[in-house]
Specification:
Radius of gyration: 19 Å
CATH class: Alpha Beta
Distance between the termini: 47 Å
Number of helices: 9
CATH superfamily: Decaprenyl diphosphate synthase-like
Strand content: 5-15%
Largest sheet: 6 strands, parallel
Length: 255
């Protein structure tokens, strides 16, 4: 073990001991930014290697979240705009999704920790084989309610709100609701994330400071944390700093 690794371990231990287990965010959302830049920095690896490293980081973050008692993790994996990327990259990402959803069916840690897996977004836009792998992954974990892991795929926050409006309009046209029935709760019930608690903390990596259309409705009172590390390089100490920052803030909802 190098001296630098030892220092980081000691720093992780120090931050962990200072965290208040009674003040953990129930729901953390992640904007996993920086996979492509990571590939470019490495020089000799193609862009898909960056995404593969990103999958490994996500698994680590899930482990850390479970250890800290965080109940819900939602990760922004693929936006509707990402379909405009080069075909080779989009095809590679679909293959990566397909492979990893298949893994979930028999994933030891997922089932040991009773993690329910759910995809939020326009699943209808995805290839049939990916949709089938998602169906099997969700089905294999549907009995769990201890922890929840959401992946936002084919997702866009504005489109989500538009789709919710369309559902509500159709209910009104069918005579199922009146104008007076339309309120925040009804909108919540028609979002892709229906029934899900809003995120307490949203973490974005790579130094960018924007939401990029992620959980626009749900993030009204979320605490935001921006980290300079590229997603594949995210360390546990970076994650713990985000939790520490959350716990140090005075949360005054609505002000």
């Amino acid at each position: 073990m190098s001296l630098l690794q030892l220092i980081y371990q000691l720093y992780e231990w120090h931050i962990s001991k200072k965290l208040n287990p009674k003040n953990m965010p129930k729901h953390i959302a992640l904007i996993m930014d920086g996979n492509r830049r990571f590939s470019k920095i490495q020089g000799s690896i193609n862009v898909m290697k960056g995404h593969e490293f990103g999958v490994n980081t996500l698994e680590k973050v899930l482990d850390w979240s479970i250890d800290l008692g965080i109940e819900i993790v939602t990760a922004y994996a693929f936006s509707t705009e990402n379909f405009n990327r080069p075909k080779d990259e989009v095809d590679g990402l679909m293959s990566l999704f397909n492979k990893n959803f298949k893994r979930i069916v028999s994933h030891e840690k997922i089932h040991k920790n009773e993690v329910r897996v759910k995809v939020v977004g326009r699943i209808d836009l995805l290839p049939d084989e990916v949709k089938e792998s998602i169906r099997k992954a969700e089905e294999s974990t549907a009995m769990y309610n201890k922890r929840l892991f959401n992946l936002a795929i084919g997702y866009d926050g504005r489109l989500e709100i538009v789709d919710a409006i369309k559902k509500i309009v159709n209910e009104f046209k069918d005579g199922k609701i009146s104008i007076d029935d339309i309120n925040e709760n009804l909108v919540n019930e028609n979002l892709y994330t229906a029934g899900l608690d809003d995120p307490n903390l949203i973490i974005r990596t790579s130094g960018e400071e924007r939401l990029s259309g992620f959980l626009l409705w749900q993030s009204s009172y979320s605490e935001l944390y921006f980290c300079d590390s590229l997603w594949p390089e995210l360390r546990k100490v970076d994650f713990l700093r985000a939790i520490r920052s959350y716990q140090e803030r005075e949360r005054r909802l609505g002000t």
